[in-house]
Design a protein that fits this description.
The protein is an all-alpha fold. 95% of the residues lie in helices and 0% in strands.
């Protein structure tokens, strides 16, 4: 019985020299995958930030428009009060 397990270990160690050149390739592949995932994550965050900026810009434009309307109303009220005096 120990003969069959010994032969399997021997078979494994005969392939080790062929597998050693693959180790740097695998490490490089994992690094590349990590970099790609990090870049995608940064792009997604940038897109989310851009969307928030767009929404804030729209909100600011609406507020500016309402302030202009209030200023026009206030100017009209001031003119009416001056006429009354």
């Amino acid at each position: 019985m120990s003969n069959s397990s010994d032969s399997s270990w021997i078979d494994f160690f005969t392939f080790v020299p062929f597998l050693l050149p693959l180790i740097p390739l695998l490490i490089g592949l994992f690094i590349l995958i990590f970099i790609v995932r990090a870049i995608r994550r940064m792009e997604r965050r940038a897109e989310e930030r851009l969307e928030l900026d767009r929404k804030n810009n729209i909100l600011q434009q609406e507020q500016t428009k309402k302030m202009d309307e209030f200023n026009q109303r206030l100017t009209g009220i001031e003119l009416m009060l001056k006429e009354v005096e």
